[in-house]
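Backbone geometry tokens:
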Amino acid sequence: MSLLTTLNDDMKAAMKAKDKATLTVIRMLKAAVQNEEIKLGKPLDEDGELTILSREMKQRNESLAEFKKAGRDDLVDKINQEILVVEKYLPKQLTDEEIRQLVQDAITKSGAASVKEFGKVMAIVMPQVKGKADGQVVNGIVKELLS
């Protein structure tokens, strides 16, 4: 079942439940998917859908950090609720230990020995963790293991 179909079904359920917060987030996700499909001129594949969801999650995480820094607790709560809704559509997130293992395998595979070869390792790891891990976390683990 495509992401758009799932979003439509969940949108109907949220309407029936009168869950405005969830409904708003689902509508934003649906709009993002539809806009991307229009831009490309064809339906998105699973990888494209994952890219959209990852982008939406990243935007919310960045907003969360900004709101926390500004002391806006009212908006922090709202963003946390939105993050929970977006997480439902993302694949299960990898633990730091799982990411560390993937990075270690990539270092071995690429033969990287220093931080200068950071790009080689990231090129191997990122396609494997797409949508399953935050890029900044992966970045940090790669730097840590290469130094």
In short: The chain has two domains: 3-87, 96-146. The domain at 96-146 is CATH 1.10.10.410 (Arc Repressor Mutant, subunit A). The mean pLDDT is 90. The first helix runs from residue 3 to 16.
